[in-house]
Amino acid sequence: MTHSLHRSGRFQEMDYVWLLYHVKGVNDQNLTERLRQAIDMAEEAGTVNWGDVKTGTIVSLSSEEIKTKLTDKSRIRGAFSSQGQVTQFLKKMRKADLGLCVIIAGLLDQVFQSCEDAGLKPHTVNYSLGVFGKKELLPDNDTLAITTMCGHHMIPDGLVTEVRKKVRKKKISVEKAAVKLASLCPCGIFNQERASRLLQLEAEATHNEATVEEE
Fold it and tell me: What are phi and psi of 151, to 5 degrees?
């Protein structure tokens, strides 16, 4: 899915999107039960976020509530924070053979390695060709590293700036700040663990710069 391909910035090695899809009339029989099984496997593998765009994500609702509300029109998407989790998930899915379309987005060499380790061969590959146009109008790279984790850009640049300020002033923890940002992404592909890492790193850098100036 192209909306998950344009993630940028640091720590992409801890950021992998997973998506489950079906084709109407081809592999949509008894769909909700098969989706529940696949979600269980993603959770066993350690998915940090996931959701059904028709209902919501686990940063706002309980996992059981989302599973209960699954329908034939559900669109399940989530995020892993390590290559090991991706490999484990793919191994489980291959063994279960649920007949679902599985899409993984991330650094290609690591995704390919996970597929190989799971005994799978990718069917189709989509590439992000980068950003074209007046790139000087874009926000800074650290902001893009966070906002591009929501492929539909539901997280405003200004909110990221506001959250950063609160983190620096210790008005909110990096974990709570990351969850606040994640709650705005209805797909469930926002990786709050990576966001926490990015916010923490920036807060530490700002603190160090302030210390140097005082000295």
Answer: -60, -20
